[in-house]
From TrEMBL:
This is Flagellar basal body rod protein. Keywords: Cell projection, Cilium, Flagellum, Membrane, Transmembrane, Transmembrane helix. It comes from the Bacteria. It comes from Halobacillus kuroshimensis. The keyword Transmembrane helix applies. The chain crosses the membrane at residues 52-84.
Length: 115
């Protein structure tokens, strides 16, 4: 039942991730552009240049703010990662229980002694 619920949660998270992939890319590009605009603003010596960079920065900031709901896609990616970790840890737990079985270890050691 837990694996089924993890699977359903994974499907929902995958759908949210795919639906928000475009806004996530735009948000990332706009944050990167904001960084570049800030660096150019700091380098600029003239007042007109600084005003120009502020205007460009405000335009890019409006793009970033309009795509802020892309954080839902980032959260969905985190949920997918969490589900993947839980899914693989459950399979590791089941294999480690088999390896800790004393009869399996005895049979392996007995086979090594008979060689």
């Amino acid at each position: 039942m837990k694996k089924f619920l993890l699977f359903l949660a994974g499907l929902i998270a995958l759908g949210l991730f795919i639906a928000n992939l475009g806004p996530m890319i735009l948000l990332g590009v706009s944050v990167w552009l904001l960084y570049i605009v800030f660096k150019q603003f700091v380098k600029s010596d003239s007042t007109a240049g600084k005003i120009g960079w502020i205007v460009v920065g405000l335009i890019v900031l409006s793009i970033a703010v309009s795509n802020v709901y892309a954080v839902v896609g980032v959260a969905a990616a985190f949920v997918l990662y969490w589900i993947y970790i839980n899914w693989t840890s459950r399979t590791r737990d089941s294999t480690s229980e088999k390896e800790d079985d004393p009869f399996t270890n005895f049979e392996r050691q007995w086979a090594d002694l008979n060689k």
